[in-house]
Structures are given as C-alpha cells and as structure tokens.
Amino acid sequence: DQQVKQNSPSLSVQEGRISILNCDYTNSMFDYFLWYKKYPAEGPTFLISISSIKDKNEDGRFTVFLNKSAKHLSLHIVPSQPGDSAVYFCAASSNFGNEKLTFGTGTRLTIIP
Amino acid sequence: DTGVSQNPRHKITKRGQNVTFRCDPISEHNRLYWYRQTLGQGPEFLTYFQNEAQLEKSRLLSDRFSAERPKGSFSTLEIQRTEQGDSAMYLCASSFPSGGEETQYFGPGTRLLVL
Predict the structure, then answer these.
(1) Which of A50, A68, A85, B90 is least enclosed, having the fewest CB within 10 Å?
(2) SS (H, E, C) A23-90
C-alpha cells in the first residue's frame, strides 16, 4: 500500500525555467510533509517542509504548496539551475513530524543547460 | 563536521556472514532512525530510538536484524546470516523533538552488497 506517491519517475526542465514536482498521499493522519533531494551514493538532504496548518511555505528558490482536500503537494523550483539535477523525494509524517517518515518513490529531475 | 555520520560507507559480504553498521547522530539529537533504501524505491522505515529506548520496529525488521543505542548516542545495526535480499542502502537519520515540528537529517548511508 503506497501511502505516498510520486507518479512522475522523471522530469526534464530547461535551465532558468520553473520545475514542478508533484506528490500525492492517501493517509489522512499525515500532517507534516517534507521534500528531500538526493544525489547518487549520498543520503537524502532536507530541502523544505510544510505542516498541515499552512498551504504554502517558501525558502529562497523553493516553494512547497499543500492542498489538503486533494491530498496533494507540490514543490516549485524557480529558477531551475543545473545543480538542481537530482532525485527528489516527498515524505510524510504524522504528529507534526514526531513519527517515522513515509517516502514516495522519487522523481529524477534533470536540468538542461 | 556536525552532520550525521555512518560507517562504513560501503560493505561487501558473502551470504551467511554477519555485518554491523554504525551511526553517529548530530550532537544533542535524541531521536535516531534507521531506514533502508533499495533501487528505485524511497527509503523505508526500519526502527527508531528515543535516547536509548527502541520505540518502534517495522515488520521489515526480521529476527536477523537487531539495533542498539546503548548510551543514547551512537547506534549500531547488525544483520545476522545475511541474504542477497539484504543488499540495499542503509540510512540513518537523527532529529531533536522541540515540541513543534520535527525534521529528520540523514547521514550518507552504508551501501551493503551481499554476494
């Protein structure tokens, strides 16, 4: 039972344009959501998070949007840079992150120079 | 470096052998988590500790797996009688619950290959 889904295994975006990565979840108990970035042979690096009391959180070039009614979140990267090329994982937790994380299967983002 | 560290980074072993991995969390982080990631999948939860207490174990953690955090600082994950299906990246994460939102920070992982 995949409680967190990232339906796009890969995405290619031109440098300077907007990258939009999507994530859906099914468990209504999830109230804290995180995005991690992962390079090959390294551990996931935390990017940005959002709790269910908000619908948007912004940090520099990264913005996460949460639509609770649709059980959907998205990560926007503007402008996209070559160094953004990596695998992006969406993760969810209950109790505002004070529980284990449930991850999606990841989206490989490639930024085309 | 004040991040999460894991050792070894790579381990190749023969089927049936025992292996042990170590994780050193970020200083003062009292929660420590173990995850496993296989090719094409996201990390999957294995177990977690708050200080030295092991509070939850996944069904993925068979009897051949054991984890400890004896003094509430570093943790070890041991796999006995390894099988080829144990080949994966083993990830450790730590966090500090502050009464609000909690974010887990990951180490670089230990990649295990069982031949």
Answers:
(1) A68
(2) EEECCCCCCEEEEEEECCCCCCEEEEEEECCCCEEEECCEEEEEECCCCEEEEEECCCCHHHCEEEEE
